[in-house]
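fyi for ur records
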Amino acid sequence: MSDVPAAISAAHRGEWARVVASLAKRFGDLDIAEEAAAEAFATAVARWPEDGVPPNPGAWLTTTANRKAIDRLRRESKRDDKHREAQQAYAEPPEPLGVIDDERLRLIFTCCHPALALETRVALTLRMIGGLTVPEIARAFLVQETTMGQRISRAKGKIKAAKIPYRVPAAGDLPERVSGVLAVLFLVFNEGYLATGPDTDPVRRELTGEAIRLTRLIHALLPDDGEVTGLLALMLLTEARRTARISAAGELVPLGEQDRAAWDAELIAEGHALVRARLATGVPPGRYQILAAVNAVHTSARKVEETDWSQVVALYNQLTRIDRSPIVALNRAIAVAELDGPEVALAAVDRLAESLARYHAYHVTRADLLRRLGRADESRAALDKAVEFAGNSAEIAYLTRRRDELDAGN
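which gave:
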């Protein structure tokens, strides 16, 4: 059946988080949940071609994964105690928290518990909820795969040892817990927006969609939280450009070259409304609100020449006061190039060489600035580095073509 591989891929995209969350709730063990879910999908790969795709793939996978988990507990000779605990947990009525009851949201808050370091919370949730592989997560963090694998394993062990509860915090505890969750959702969205896996679609709509869905849930919980509103606006304004970001040839299309008529006007309107609502409060904005405002400036311009670059630079100046990361400095330099020219921007970019040496966007930016300064050989060398470190197939195709065009011009 030729449609079975596609059905399995679709089920993995749509059901992985649900299956893992369901098992985590029942068995209280993330290792069991993850491994049983993986075994269920492996079973689907083996059986669906012969038996056919079940009418409800998610239910089939959840049932199969539950059986795999119970089988594992039996094999480990721990069934009596472990399974009794699982049955008790499964039989408990829903907690009267007065907040949204969503198993995936519960799992996110478990993975983002304050007992874990922030980067560990993000990495664990990308794995358990987003279904990203360890190599994908390692690239998102710019670290080695072995380092990331160890970090995730230690996090799961700490959750188990500390008996961190699997639940959404009570309403009064939500504000202090939400920052780690927002960081998770932002990285999940970014991985979908510019996927780094070599065997994945360049844009993973299921990840951006899930990140937006969960952010909407948190916004419903905390409608007055500026950063929740800012992140939702940022996601919507970014997602609005999705269909214009990949060409028919499968290449990434930079912002300045996109067909703005193809942008989603409804998402842009919603994102702009959220940005304006936060501005009206007069409360000093946080990181996500400023980034949303930057995107509002870009999506307000009918064509790239109408972009208010002075406003973009002013927003990045404001952002650098609360976020001194080199990536923010890099993005500010890109805007500075439009105001003060490529030479001024290149000096700022070169100061980031040590911290961003393995970050592909750093080399992409240098290549463009060097090209604009007429330094073709150096630009080509920077493009070589950009291709080496880029993980997105559409971006690699675009950068390779730009490098070839630079060669042809010499």
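The domain at 341-410 is CATH 1.25.40 (Serine Threonine Protein Phosphatase 5, Tetratricopeptide repeat). thats all i got for now
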